[in-house]
Amino acid sequence: xxxxxxxxxxxxxxxxxxxxxxxxxxxxxxxxxxxxxxxxxxxxxxxxxxxxxxxxxxxxxxxxxxxxxxxxxxxxxxxxxxxxxxxxxxxxxxxxxxxxxxxxxxxxxxxxxxx
Amino acid sequence: xxxxxxxxxxxxxxxxxxxxxxxxxxxxxxxxxxxxxxxxxxxxxxxxxxxxxxxxxxxxxxxxxxxxxxxxxxxxxxxxxxxxxxxxxxxxxxxxxxxxxxxxxxxxxxxx
Lengths: 115, 112
Prior knowledge:
The complex is a heterodimer.
Chain A: E1 5-7, E2 10-13, E3 19-24, E4 31-37, E5 44-50, E6 53-57, E7 64-68, E8 74-78, E9 87-94, E10 105-106, E11 110-114
Chain B: E1 9-13, E2 18-23, E3 32-38, E4 45-50, E5 55-56, E6 61-64, E7 70-75, E8 84-91, E9 106-111
Parallel strand pairs in B: 1-9
Antiparallel strand pairs in B: 2-7, 3-4, 3-8, 5-6, 6-7, 8-9
């Protein structure tokens, strides 16, 4: 079965650079969620989109922005990167109405390293 | 969303049942209890969820107390592959979507 696809899987950037992460949800899923997980930390909710509109916002820095496109894929843009942005970034998707179970389907994550 | 409290770590012998507790004393009537797990740096994986009745699926059982202030996830026959961080999440609906707030889960180590 198709899963959530994230790219790139690994990314290395310098401080003050910009990075873009992409997320392709499972087909027919209309909601996308972004999480950040620092080393030894628990996943922190950043932002979510439902039908291409931002729906919930968590602890996302102002330097970060995200959007969901007409094909439902989403991109997380991070500017003025700081060392503390080094983390695993997970994307998750859910079907319309959460499919009755409320289950989120997570991708394998994108590991960002800021040097 | 209600906060949850879980023990930071637990050990379990392979083949034995693993019982992972979770306290959610401020849960409200329309909030569900969800369990996810994360195996070393992989994406979190859904296990099970419930509202007030006990639930069972192919992965685990979920026991929710009558007052709904706590719950227990049961892995009936733990294997080495069940070693992971287990998260108990109480989820309510916000703006038509359902953000999940991960707290500090329980790091389960299954011992051979």
